[in-house]
Write a structure and sequence with these properties.
8-stranded mixed sheet, 34% helix
Length: 347
């Protein structure tokens, strides 16, 4: 390497350049989806700045209200929601938004917009005040209704298989944006001094199996018998238990290293806790593109039909072999219960 080359080493591929090069992956698009992804990246930079100032300004802590889920909002929940909605509205490509923080569909006024975005603006926000990784999750659908009017409920209640893009941003030791458009998964790390996301994790693939399991074992007594059995198997195999309490952070680690994230149905939350449209579907699309699997225990997450904007579902997601083992245990448990009930009815 010459002195001149050493003085000016390449900095890598920026997100904008990568999106432009990949635009031919969208046979139905003429640049609108590319612009939408740039809008999300811009909002992520602004939210990243706010998070980094959380300990120095009065932006941390509780907001004093609850969202539609009945969860206490943090100030940064509100900030992130405003920033992403504003970026998507100003970008002009989105006709309607579904947000964890809003009960109803948000109409952007962009009646010619081709896309619907479902978003959890700040996942794991209760971890902000203790400096633990948090994130943003987003899912993109192409509208079904005619352009020129507001987005409809039919536009919003689409199955995961109809997604055209999905991604997440993780705000941690570094800030990363990971996304897919159905042609693999790529990760970009934010370089703060240049204000750009650079390709750092091309063509992410998840190992077929792993030795990490992520579940809130504090709820162990509320788990189904099959899930208790799987947790015991993990312990016997000396798997590592890793649970941060931020879905994005737990998912990101397991996708890179191999593992399974589980939020099962419990006696307290029989339908699970995670939301189908803007949490489970988005991560399911990503993990499948990376070679993994996502299930509600018996069905593929992306095949589920949503009936409500904030519908919840159990989630088992990660390395394929680990998810399939959980599915087998649940199926066997269900078969045993059915057989017992049948025998009891005949006695």
């Amino acid at each position: 390497m010459t002195i001149t080359e050493n003085l000016a080493l390449p900095v890598g591929t920026t997100l904008d350049r990568f999106i432009m090069r990949k635009q031919e992956d969208f046979p139905f698009a003429t640049g609108e989806l590319s612009q939408l992804l740039r809008d999300i990246a811009l909002a992520a930079k602004i939210v990243n700045r706010a998070i980094n100032h959380a300990g120095l300004t009065d932006i941390g802590g509780a907001y004093g209200k609850q969202n539609v889920q009945g969860e206490d909002q943090q100030k940064l929940d509100v900030v992130a929601n405003i920033r992403f909605i504003r970026a998507l509205r100003n970008g002009g490509e989105v006709c309607a938004i579904i947000s964890e923080e809003d009960e109803e569909v948000i109409q952007t006024g962009n009646h010619k917009g081709k896309y619907i975005v479902a978003i959890d603006p700040l996942d794991g926000s209760s971890n902000i005040d203790v400096n633990v990784s948090i994130g943003t999750i987003f899912s993109v659908y192409r509208r079904l209704s005619e352009q020129g009017c507001e987005g409809t409920m039919e536009d919003c209640l689409q199955r995961g298989v109809q997604q055209v893009a999905a991604g997440y941003i993780i705000y941690g030791s570094s800030t990363m944006l990971v996304y897919t458009t159905g042609c693999g998964v790529n990760g970009f790390t934010y370089e703060t001094s240049l204000g750009e996301f650079f390709l750092s994790h091309p063509n992410i693939t998840i190992p077929a199996t792993g030795s990490i399991y992520s579940i809130n074992e504090g709820s162990y007594n509320q788990f189904q018998a099959a899930i208790k059995q799987y947790v015991e198997l993990c312990r016997e195999r000396n798997y590592s238990a890793r649970y941060i309490g931020s879905l994005v952070a737990d998912f990101h680690r397991n996708m890179l290293k191999g593992g399974i994230y589980m939020y099962p149905s419990t006696t307290k939350a029989p339908n699970g806790k995670l939301r189908l449209l803007y949490e489970a579907n988005a991560l399911a699309f990503i993990v499948e593109q990376a070679g993994g699997k996502a299930s509600n225990g018996s069905e593929r997450i992306m095949e589920l039909y949503p009936t409500d904007l904030h519908q919840r579902c159990p989630l088992y997601i990660g390395s394929t072999e680990m998810v399939e083992e959980v599915e087998r245990l649940l199926a066997n448990s269900e078969a045993t219960v059915s057989a017992s009930m049948s025998e009891a009815s005949h006695n």
